[in-house]
Design a protein that fits this description.
The protein has helices at 17-29, 48-55, 74-80, 91-99, 105-112, 125-129, 131-142, 168-182, 216-227, 256-267, 310-315, 334-344, 386-401; strands at 6-11, 33-38, 83-89, 117-121, 146-147, 151-154, 160-164, 191-196, 201-204, 207-209, 231-236, 248-252, 272-275, 282-284, 304-306, 323-330, 349-354, 366-367, 370-373, 378-380, 384-385. By secondary structure, the chain is α/β, with parallel strands linked by helices. A hairpin with a 2-residue loop joins strand 9 and strand 10. The protein is elongated, with a radius of gyration of 25 Å. Bound molecules: cytidine-5'-triphosphate.
Length: 402
């Protein structure tokens, strides 16, 4: 899968930099074109001569070549790459990437990279275990970067623990899998309908009942389905997110009723429908046509009426060959509630997440899910970025459809 791929290999200043030489060799052997970018500290551990000889390209380390003034454009590099791998990534470089401290060529290249980024941390066990390293790694994960977890083993310090950079062969396997997946057009010819975000139920012209949903999970699903070749219709409640690139048609709505109407006109031709929106269950019975004034009212009562259940409405009209997926964000009895929604709404699969799990749920960049299917299967996943979770969910949907 590496043949012809443009890869930036970022090397930072750690003992494990010696392994980057093998990594470079394996990437080149696999047919990739590799541009090495090394930090000034990295050069203390491994020489640019070795790296340029193996990659067949001058190694980039500074913003420009001092004697000729030649400018090395991190922006061009960021556009050129199909992926960027930073191995080893020291605690210091991880902190700089997490916080945008662009004080060397490698970090500016990282910040300019348009391609997926893989980061292989390498450091002593205590540095690895420090809360600040942990937080920085989680920040990088939340930006959608892929962390290649370090191994537990014998470290340069003589101690044994977690912090050894993953072996070059394993890193190459990760990249191979990534390119294989990326070129996977398994949803080509399929139409995928996705609901996302909250709904706003108007009280008067300036107020509404809403919820904290950010829409990030639904947008990540749209991006992943489109990456796999699907035609995506993304029906979104009010969110402040850009539409992901790809074959995605976005329909903006506000209320549950508008969301249902938009879905109804797309549902019959959809092969897969994913109900990811946090739809308000109730809406004010009357919407005041003028702003409600505080006046002298010591209290006020809003009368609410039930909104339509979009998933259940469409679930009751499904045709053969359609796959329907819902979500269940719960605070308790998670699995039981998830299974009951699966039955009640006539779905094939429900993605359950619990408000009790740190990092799961509405507005963050990560999620922790368990998938339950109508066939009775159950599969749990660890905490991951929402884009990785989207890939897991779509893998599960594809498993259902075969
Ligand atoms: N859903 C929907 N329309 C609604 C309510 C929910 O399409 N009016 C969908 C959600 O998008 C989600 C699933 O149904 O896929 C479960 O949503 P949730 O709010 O958890 O379920 P409810 O049926 O509202 O159950 P409860 O409020 O009792 O948890």
């Amino acid at each position: 899968m590496l043949k012809g791929k443009h890869i930036i290999l970022g090397i930072t200043g750690g003992i494990a930099a010696y392994k980057s030489v093998s990594l470079l060799r394996l990437l080149v052997k696999g047919g990739a074109e590799v541009q090495v970018v090394i930090t000034p500290a990295g050069k203390e551990f491994i020489t640019p001569v070795t790296l340029s000889a193996l990659s067949g390209k001058p190694v980039v380390s500074e913003f420009f070549t001092a004697n000729t003034g030649e400018w090395h454009s991190h922006v061009d590099l960021g556009l050129w790459a199909d992926c960027m791998v930073i191995a080893p990534a020291t605690a210091s470089s991880i902190a700089k990437m997490a916080n945008g401290v662009a004080d060397n060529m490698l970090i500016t290249t990282y910040l300019s990279a348009k391609s997926p980024v893989f980061i292989a941390p390498a450091m002593d066990l205590d540095m690895m275990a420090h809360p600040s390293t942990h937080r920085n790694i989680e920040l990088l994960r939340s930006y959608g970067n892929n962390i290649i977890e370090p191994e537990t083993g014998f470290l340069a310090s003589g101690l044994t623990g977690k912090g050894r950079m993953e072996e070059p062969e394993k890193i190459v396997e990760v990249l191979d899998r990534f390119f294989e997946k990326n070129e996977n057009q398994s949803l080509a010819g399929k139409k995928v309908l996705i609901t996302a975000g909250p709904t706003y139920e108007a009280i008067d012209p300036v107020r509404f009942i809403g919820n904290y949903s950010s829409g990030k999970m639904g947008f990540a699903l749209a991006a992943e389905a489109s990456r796999r070749g699907a035609e995506v219709v993304l029906v979104s409640g009010p969110v402040s997110l850009d539409t992901p690139s790809g074959n995605i048609r976005r329909v903006d709505v506000r209320s549950a009723r508008e969301m249902l109407a938009a879905c109804e006109s797309e549902f019959d031709t959809a092969d897969i429908a994913i109900f990811c929106a946090a739809v308000a269950d109730y809406a004010p019975e009357q919407v005041a046509d003028r702003k409600i004034k505080r006046g002298d009212m010591p209290e006020m009562t809003l009368r609410l009426v039930r909104n339509p259940d979009i998933a259940a409405t469409l679930g009751s009209r499904r045709r053969d060959g359609q796959t329907l997926v819902g979500f269940a964000l719960e605070t308790d009895n998670e699995m039981e509630n998830g299974r009951s929604k699966l039955r009640r709404k006539n779905l094939d699969m429900v993605v359950v997440n619990s408000m009790r799990d740190a990092g799961a749920g509405f507005s963050g960049d990560t999620n922790k899910i368990t998938v339950v299917t109508a066939e009775g299967d159950e599969k749990s996943f660890p905490l991951k970025s929402k884009s990785e979770v989207a890939a897991d969910i779509i893998d599960c949907i594809e498993d259902l459809s075969v």
